[in-house]
Amino acid sequence: MAITLSLEGKTAIVTGGGRGIGKAITARLAEAGANVVIASRKLENLEAAAAELAERPGRVVPVQCHVGEAEQIEALVQRTESDVGQVDIVVNNSVTNLGQGPSTEVTEAMLDKMMNVNVKAAINLVHRVVPSMRERGGGSIINMSSISGFQPQPGGLLYNFTKAGLNMLTRTWAREFGRWNIRVNGIAPGLIKTDFSRYFWEDEKRREALVGNQPLQRLGQPGDIGFAAAYLASDEAAFMTGQTLIIDGGVLA
Asked: Residue 194: what are its φ and ψ, rounded to 5°?
């Protein structure tokens, strides 16, 4: 018997939902019936994604938002609640990556931006939606981490520790919010073919050096992550919390 995930009647927010992994997650959530608000700074990407996904059972609603600004997070949630519905699912997917290179060359400006987008945005959004989830008897929060949060990427100090921080946020929130049936999980992708990771796969030698060491010797695709997020958001994962799924072609094996 085929298992079909249903998110009918649910409302989701996916930050960074206009392209790459965020867009693939949005597609899966909307396919399962959820109404999905996608948010990022670039409205043109959001509108293009919403148009492409318009035939899904769930609505896809673009909302411009700089997630590194707390007041814009507040406006995002207010608009979602007024125009779409109370938030049942949050996917913290927005990310930036600055300061590749020696850790001693990291500047305070780089640190501030990485913390604001990769960590504080997730904290601000979760703290805003949890009271409503608690009142309504539950919800699902999904934090997009990386295998770099488990095994540091050379030259990636800020990316590594912000992703490791998300892993600990996932575990901490799971313990705190579980009493209200709010589940908190994460996904840690390996190398996925997106614009964000272009540096690692566009050059053939660099790509082969990375993929050649994987048990599954291919680049991951955004769709490889999308279904995992839909599963974590659904009642099929009702007894799962505090976990970070590693989807990396076997790199950490």
From this structure: -135, 170
CA 33 to chain centre: 19
In this prediction the pTM is 0.94
The residues, ordered by sequence, that sit 6+ positions from 19 with a Cβ below 8 Å of its Cβ are: 45, 49, 194, 195
Please pick, among 30, 56, 128, 159, the residue that the annotation labels catalytic: 159
| 215 domain residue, yes or no | no
Q: What's 141's domain CATH number?
A: 3.40.50.720
Beta carbons within 10 angstroms of residue 43's beta carbon: 14
Q: Does 47 map to a domain?
A: yes
Catalytic site includes residue 159: yes
pLDDT at 201: 56
The stretches in the chain having pLDDT less than 70 are 1-3, 197-202
CA 50 to CA 210: how far, in whole Å? Answer: 33
Burial status of residue 111 (CB atoms within 10 A of its CB: 0-12, 13-18, 19 or more): middle
Total structural domains within the chain = 1
